[in-house]
Amino acid sequence: MPADEYGRKMPRFTVNLLVRDVARSVAFYTCVLGATVQYSDSDFAALELAGLEFMLHADHTYDHHPLYARLTQGERGSGAELRLLGVDPDQVETRAKVHGATIVQPAKDFPHGWRDMMVCDPDGYIWAVGVLLPR
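RESULT FIELD:
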């Protein structure tokens, strides 16, 4: 699909993560979080997870972008928590262990009404995934 056609069909809010290695990140998102790939190459990937469409762009695709200098200065992802309801946290935790992903917080029930867990992607982005607890 041409880039402008994809851009026109995007939802009003989406997530775009800048990553060091698209293939490595795609492996994490598919194997650990259970995302499906809509498109992927060495520069870009479009994925879907529990109804959320999101994108990955390789760092080098931003080499003329104002964010590029910040990318070269170290760790990223801190200060943001990507929360997604509708993804089984126990299954994600099991897959995270199998694939060696960093579990930030194991699956457990929380007073806010979710059973969730937190996992770190290869670039330091924290995903909190979970399901609603019965009332």
